[in-house]
Write a structure and sequence with these properties.
Helix content is 37%, strand content 2%. It has helices at residues 46-59, 64-69, 77-88, 100-113, 117-121, 129-147, 166-172, 190-199, 212-225, 227-231, 258-267, 270-274, 311-315; strands spanning 30-32, 38-40. A hairpin with a 5-residue loop joins β1 and β2 (38-40). The longest helix has 19 residues, at 129-147. It is elongated and about 50 Å long. The chain binds a DNA duplex through α3 and α6.
DNA sequence: AAACAGGCCAACCGCCGGCTT
DNA sequence: GAAGCCGGCGGTTGGCCTGTT
């Protein structure tokens, strides 16, 4: 049998049963598989898990389709693989919420890799791509709800091939200013002042490409202290950063009338920059300021800090503005592919 | 206590790329 | 080179659980 054990670090982990079997699951359907075999769908039964575990123990996690062809289970190979990867594999952190460290890793790697959940999951021992995906999805929904904004359009799928920065979205999605501004320290109500300002600019309220990395931790405390932000249908004011603000590029948006400055903002050659996943010759290397993320060139990850930052900029910010951000520990290297 | 909303998560679907024939 | 198969991956769905009203 496989012991479902949480990792040592996850004190909240509960060694839950791998089988959450509810009679009458989502589909509980049957489908005709190849060879006339009636394929089972829906929640897995404990007996099926045992068969699958036994198969993997004997043959390793491969040749999934042979499980069906040998008549061991009335499940597709894909279904078997998914069940193994997401639930039955040893050392999964089943029933354990993401730790703050894990959240930071996900946030940072998502900014770098885009929706490459499987890749991101390799940096999170015990987590599957499904876990990461669900975590991120929940996060998106939560912020969307807080901001009362639609989630980013699903029609413009990025398929995770290239991380789309908020600025890139601004270029892709049309003529209107679709970056929303969060100004100042959310903890002292400045964001509500910004909200009032921006509410006077009706043209900028659609759509809202959100970067949750910074917005969520900033906004949630703000919502608690400023309920009217969440109670009003006020458009949220969120400058969508997947990085810390750059004084030359972003500060213009902090001016009284951002729309007047939009042309200059757009004149900056963003598309080329954001096409860069490797160190980009079009921008100088990062210097001076801390990056709240991965170290550059660590564990095979090249974190490209595209923007030089000056200490002056941060001196103008409330000193505790980024208190919620700590230097995260470096992510563990991707686990070497264990031959199971 | 009931209704509702939101969070969580398992599992399916469709697409894509690699491999084999 | 083309076709088919298979596994991997990301997106999506929908049911259950939990907290709030």
């Amino acid at each position: 049998m496989i012991a479902m054990q949480g990792s040592g670090g996850g004190s909240q982990c509960t060694a839950t049963s791998s089988n959450h079997i509810s009679s009458g699951g989502k589909t509980n359907g049957r489908a005709e598989g190849g060879g006339g075999m009636v394929m089972r769908k829906g929640p897995w039964m404990a007996e099926e898990d045992e068969i699958l575990i036994e198969y993997v123990r004997k043959h390793g996690p491969r040749d999934w389709s042979s499980i069906r062809s040998k008549g061991l289970l009335p499940r597709t190979g894909k279904s078997c693989r998914l069940r193994w990867v997401n639930k039955l594999k040893p050392d999964l952190k089943t029933g354990c919420k993401f730790s703050p460290e894990e959240e930071r890793i996900v946030i940072d790697l998502q900014a770098q890799f885009g929706n490459k959940w499987a890749r991101i999951a390799t940096y999170l021992p015990g987590r599957t791509d499904n876990d990461v995906k669900n975590f991120w999805s929940t996060r998106q929904k939560r912020l969307a709800r807080i901001l009362r904004t639609p989630l980013p359009s699903r029609s413009s799928k990025n398929h995770g091939k290239v991380p789309i920065s908020s600025h890139e979205v601004a270029h892709l999605e049309g003529p209107s200013l679709d970056l929303i501004l969060l100004e100042g320290d959310s903890s002292n109500g400045q964001c509500s002042q910004a909200a009032s300002k921006m509410a006077q600019m009706p043209d900028i309220m659609n759509p809202v490409p959100l970067n949750l990395d910074t917005a969520l931790p900033l906004l949630e405390p703000a919502m608690e202290k400023e309920p009217r932000l969440s109670n009003n249908p006020l458009p949220p004011l969120l400058l969508s950063f997947d990085r810390l603000p750059h004084p030359l590029i972003d500060l213009p948006l902090l001016q009284e009338d951002a729309s007047e400055l939009l042309p200059s903002y757009r004149d900056v050659s963003f598309p080329d920059e954001f096409a860069c996943l490797e160190p980009c010759p079009c921008m100088p290397p990062p210097q001076g300021l801390p990056f709240f993320g991965l170290d550059a060139e660590q564990n095979g990850i090249t974190k490209v800090d595209k923007y030089p930052r000056t200490p002056d900029f941060f001196e103008d910010l409330p000193s505790d503005m980024f208190d919620y951000l700590e230097q995260p520990p470096p992510p563990p290297p991707p686990p070497s592919s264990t031959s199971w």
